[in-house]
Amino acid sequence: MSNHFANSVLATAAALAFLSLAVMPGTAQEQGAAKKEEPKIVRPKPGSPPPPRMPDGHVDLGNGKGSWNAYVIKDFTGHGWGDQGVAKQFERGPQLVEKVVEPQMLPWAQKFVLDVDKTMSKDDPEALCLPPGLPREDATPFPFQIYQLPDRLMFLYEGGAHMWRIVYTDGRKHSKDATDYPTFLGESIGHWEGDTMVVDSIGFKASSWLDAAGHPHTEKLHVVQRYTRTSLDNLHEEATIEDPDTYVKPWTTSWNIPWKAGITPLEYICQEENLDVKHLVGR
Q1: pLDDT score recorded for residue 208
Q2: Which residues of the chain have pLDDT under 70?
Q3: Nearest CA to 103 among 31, 199, 210, 183?
Q4: Helix (H, G, I), strand (E, B), or coil: what is residue 91?
């Protein structure tokens, strides 16, 4: 696991070296006396070539020529919550999203996030090697690939318990029983809107967190992700979160994911390696 952690750190550093950072104005929350930094926008460097295209004219989302080199986003709201090392447990680091958002949470959800913060995310389901769910799967610091088939997309993830995901693009609607048999990644249906792949997902287990900050959800979670390959080297993702049992109204976050040509996801068996969770006590 240490090798994967080291590789993840190096991958994140490489991704940030490739990208230019600019501060995005926004409202930073405070907790106690610790003021959290405003998040920083991650943008690809200008001058990247346009995205390649498939024979049918749609944008090529990768198809094995490399991988999307995801980096960790611990707080999709941009406020810098989420687990930190002991030396920085009271600091709020910048989160690499495009803007600060203020999701209006129901009281139980607000309390849940505060409790997660008090215990430094020690009960994070992902730490127990459970799949991260959506949209967190795309913000876990391991590479992933997208394959375009005539009737579906296939997402192959190195991290997040080495998951795969099917997005049906054959025009079907959601199954009538999609919410009766919830799964970690839900049921996903996609379609093109110009050069953007729009993926609508429902039917989630309630046991995952949206991020390491502990933003929760119920089985009524509905996620809409918009994938746009803006250039050869960049995938822009926008995710809208809707869950009437957790949030007063839908909220949206967005970020960029850099492309790394020639790399492929490796085998990663979290179940065999993460043996230290029982020692986490929070603070």
Answers
A1: 96
A2: 1-42, 45, 83-94, 271-278, 282-283
A3: 210
A4: coil
Report the C-alpha gap between 126 and 41 in whole angstroms: 25
283 found inside a domain: no
Per-residue pLDDT, 89: 54
The single-letter code of the amino acid at 282 is: G
**281: amino acid identity, one letter:** V
Q: What is the 3-state secondary structure (H, E, C) of 70-137?
A: CCCCCCCCCCCCCCCCHHHCCCCCCCCCCCCCCCCECHHHHHHHHHHHHCCCCCCHHHHCCCCCCCHH
Amino acid at 60: D
What is the structure's pLDDT at 43? 74
As a whole number of angstroms, the distance between CA 238 and CA 135 comes to 9
Neighbouring CB atoms inside 10 A of 226's CB total 16
Quote the domain boundaries for residue 196. 2-275
Dist CA 235 CA 169 (whole Å):
19
- How many domains, in total, are found in the chain? 1
Say if 211 falls within a structural domain: yes
- As a whole number of angstroms, the distance between CA 250 and CA 260 comes to 32
Whether 156 is in a domain gets the answer yes
What kind and span of H or E run contains 42? strand 40-44
Q: Residue 159: which of 121, 202, 130, 185 has the closest Cα?
A: 130
